[in-house]
Amino acid sequence: MFRGRPRTRFVTTALAAVLIGATAACGGGPVEAEQDPNAALDIWIRKPPDSPTAQTARDLAAAFTEETGIPTEVTAIFEDFETKLQQAASQQDLPDIVINDTAQLSTMAGQGIVREIDPADIEGGDTLTPRSWDATRTYDGKTYAVPFSAQSFALFVRKDWREAVGAEIPTDWDELQALAEDFTTEDPDGNGEDDTYGYVVPGSTKRGYTAWYYSSFLWSAGGDFVTASGDGLAPAIDSEASVSALRWFQDSMCDGTVVPDAVTLETSQAHPLFESGVAGIYFTGPYMMSRFDENLGADKYEIVALPAGPGGTSSVLAEGENVYLMAGSANEAGQERFAEFAVSVTGQTIGMAGDTAGNIVRLPVNTEVAIGDVRTDERWRIFDEVYRESGRYVPTVPEWTPLLQASAESFNTILADCGVDVATELGALATTMAEELEKQGATG
Asked: Which residues, if any, are the signal sequence (predicted)?
């Protein structure tokens, strides 16, 4: 019946159709796995198998084994990670540990494949930033992971272009827009051709890119996706500030300062447009530095924090990875020990991997780790400051994905057609979001 070591049997709404036959075949109720504090831990991480990041994960696991004596095996999977995880769930052969995006929290918790934890039981948990713990809690306030890595986003700006057009580093959105216009019209690369643009925008609806990209601008302009209402949530996407923010976004697209075909671009298609000299401003994460250093040159661009918007603040999307303790493990004590090691000063330092491209900890979540003690590249400090001062995770709702996707499709519609009335479009989106929140039981 079971493949590999014994697992706790669990049946959730999402997996019931797959597991019900297996449960019936085995007969009886749930069977708890016999616990063995020395049992090997199977660790999955969402990284390319032969990448430097996969090697760092193996280094982290090896250091854990050396300290604790608990054997580990690391499996790095990048393509179809979530699909393979669901296949493992249907076979009741989940790994013990999964290191995966914070955005997967609600989905995995809703499927019942991760264990609820008490942060007070995690040794060293009180040294982690409160903001990082925010990314481990579901809508009902329960905790289903241990924070491991954080990241924020900033503007990558062609420094050589900025200097060529005689502009200063932008300190507000008017100056940012003026710089984008100069990059579009003032021939910043000096080739005598009208072939440059201000912004690179990954505006495809795939995986909600349009809304994912624009969330920082929406928040910094004083807008929002949802807001508190009674004991629940209500849409805020049609508020005056949100409408104004999306009009700014639409205007940027329609005045020609955004690269053509932005509404179809995924991130993998957007990256080359910055490094090849098509556009000079790209809002993205620290993981792009090594690539742009190699393909463009570190001296050709600079990293700038997103200036405060009309809302008076800069509120930037925060993301990262959590350590998920998977259901059905034969070594629950070992799971917790691994999580504790991963967030310790030693674990975080190994995961940061210095100034190499192998980092699986982009920004440390442990307050006792000083980023400057591990990395000499000063640019990481900008992202660290943005995260600590301005970082904001996506709204905590029972299931964010449908709201993200609905927002992306609406934002994409606004970008794709300069004739679309923003207020009308966002009003329709608010109705859709209200219906989804009600379906999820998240309304007041």
From this structure: 1-27
